Amino acid sequence: MKSVVLSFIALAGLLSQNTPQNIDGNTSVAPSSIRSDGIIYAQKSEIAIGVLPFKGEGALEAENAPWKVIASDLDFSNKIEIVQLARLDTNALKLKGARMYVDGSYKIIGDSLITTANLKDFVTKKLLLTKTITVPKKDVRLAGHRFANNVVKTLFMQNGPFETSILVSRRVSGGKDIYVMDYDGYNMRKVASGSINMMPTFIDASRYVLVSYKQGRPELYRGNLNSSVSEKISYSKGMNISPDYSPTNGRLVFSSSRDGNSEIYTSDISGEKLERLTVSSANDGAPAWSPNGYMIAYISDRSGSPQLYVMDNTGSNERRLTFSGTYQDSPVWSPDGKKIAFTSRRDGKFDIFIIALDGSEETKITGVMGGHCEYPVWSPDGSQILFVHSTGGRNNIYRISADGAGEAVAVTKTGDVEMPAWSFMKE
Fold first, then answer.
1. Contact in structure between 73 and 162 (CB atoms under 8 Å)
2. d(CA 266, CA 174)
3. What are the backbone angles phi and psi of residue 9, rounded to the nearest 5°?
């Protein structure tokens, strides 16, 4: 039986402090950035948590061990600093300003993995959270992801992104296929193949829309992660590309040249109830819904070069946001709707920038990386930005803190991926 035990008094004491503190009340300073085995620990941490190896029955690959997955997941958040220990060492935890730690156990029975994980406060001796999670052995990482989500929910009253998925377009001989993977790059598998398939976007946890050249020109198709069959949903003489779905209003927005030059249109997920939003002699494309479904960001070359614009979901109140760079592309909204990330070419190099809705606070977050950085995507919790890094003919997915702090972390290493899409947060 799953059980959850919360000590809200203990949690209130832990969460009422903005900086980590030692047990004697003296403020401690969180380390800036500690790198170990490809993990970049969170900066500006609000809470430090120790993670101990679990006691176990049965062999697991080291990278799939539940405590390894939990540590990696919690480290993803800029709100948590992970202290990894071989055993419980309260002095080491105190030095890091930590009073909480995770321990647990696991056992393999047949084709199942049963994991019991705990979040404890070693000062008050309180058990803050405990869960027993059973998953198929083939999905061993899911147990760690699920407990990490519960920790984030318990501490910050919000869902974590650790059970979300990422879609990518992947180069293959003669075309491109669509693959899906866990948020951290594990468990990659093919979901659409044949011809050129690209620009995927999620509808929900299992359905998505993609652009495919199956019939010779780019059209919109609706696919399912659990089936290799896709259904065509756009029909026109022109190109239909760059779809984006809004779960708020249930509408697709996309770019189409069906009436001549490229313009912005919306439809339902069946491709029906079509509405044209932009009317100009320029090329308008790469549309993206705001989280509340009331606004659309897009790219237009009406000023002479491709620049970032926003408009209402009716096509009214168009306004320009960017005035720098020779080429802007791929805008995406932050989950809180306050900022937009986009690709910009400046000094011959593509990088990822973030800008506020009034055009202020324009910030480059990938400036220290060589090569090109394109196709940004916000993590569902808004803490990270996923992007494609291209160098030496290889394209890989990286992620970086949304404020640009620290180094970028490689999510894929295959060298042939692009155009990522991140699924919506699970409730």
1. yes
2. 31
3. -65, -45
Instruction: Express each pLDDT in 48-91 by its tens digit.
Output: 999 999 999 888 999 999 999 999 999 987 789 999 999 999 99
- Per-residue pLDDT reduced to its tens digit, 248-286: 999 999 999 999 999 999 999 999 999 999 999 999 999
Task: Judge if pTM exceeds 0.90.
Answer: no
CA distance 352 to 234: 31
Q: What angle do CA 285, 287, 289 make, to 5 degrees?
A: 170
Fold of 8-155: Rossmann fold (3.40.50)
Q: Which CATH number fits domain 165-422: 1.25.40.340, 3.40.190.10, 2.120.10.30, 1.10.3720.10?
A: 2.120.10.30
Residues of the chain with CATH 2.120.10.30: 165-422
Q: Which residues touch 19 (CB under 8 Å, ≥6 apart)?
A: 27, 28, 29, 30, 46, 97
| Cα–Cα distance list, 423 to 32, 77, 160, 286, 353 (Å) | 30, 17, 12, 18, 22
